[in-house]
Amino acid sequence: MISKDYTLGIDIGSTTVKIALLDSEHNIVFSDYKRHFANIQETLSDLLQEAVKVSGNVTLHPVITGSGGLTLAKHLEVPFV
């Protein structure tokens, strides 16, 4: 079975969480955003569950950005860009 390596971009802003899932050729496989109402972790979890429905079982290489992303990036030990 061939492994699929995808990049997961996460943007945590002051009001929304946005994610984009890109394949190895940088094509967008999935993207969406939701207002987080100060519940960032649950909102991110919901978006990731939606992404899994589209992508299936893949290897992810996450990066986080945005005004609300630094703390989460440090906690998860994920690169902050």
Explain what this protein looks like in three dimensions:
It contains 2 helices and 4 strands; from the N terminus they run E-E-E-H-E-H. 28% of the residues lie in helices and 37% in strands. A 4-stranded mixed beta sheet has the order 3-2-1-4. With 81 residues, the protein is an alpha+beta fold.
Question: What are the defining features of this structure?
Answer:
single chain, 37% strand, 81 residues, alpha+beta, four-stranded mixed sheet, globular
Q: What is the topological layout?
A:
Blueprint lengths: L4 E8 L3 E7 L5 E8 L4 H16 L3 E7 L4 H7 L5
Parallel strand pairs: 1-4
Antiparallel strand pairs: 1-2, 2-3
Could you give a short description of this structure?
Helices cover 28% and strands 37% of the residues. With 81 residues, it is of the alpha+beta class.
Q: Note the overall shape.
A: globular
How many beta-strand runs?
Answer: 4
Q: What is the number of helices?
A: 2
Order of helices and strands: EEEHEH
Q: Residue-averaged pLDDT, rounded?
A: 94
Q: State the distance separating the first and last CA atoms.
A: 32 Å
The main pleated sheet reads as: 4 strands, mixed
Tell me the radius of gyration: 12 Å
Q: How much beta, percentage-wise?
A: 35-45%
Class based on secondary structure composition and strand pairing: alpha+beta
Low-confidence segments, given as residue ranges, are none
Oligomer state equals: single chain
Work out the helicity level: 25-40%
Going across the biggest sheet, name each strand in turn: 3-2-1-4
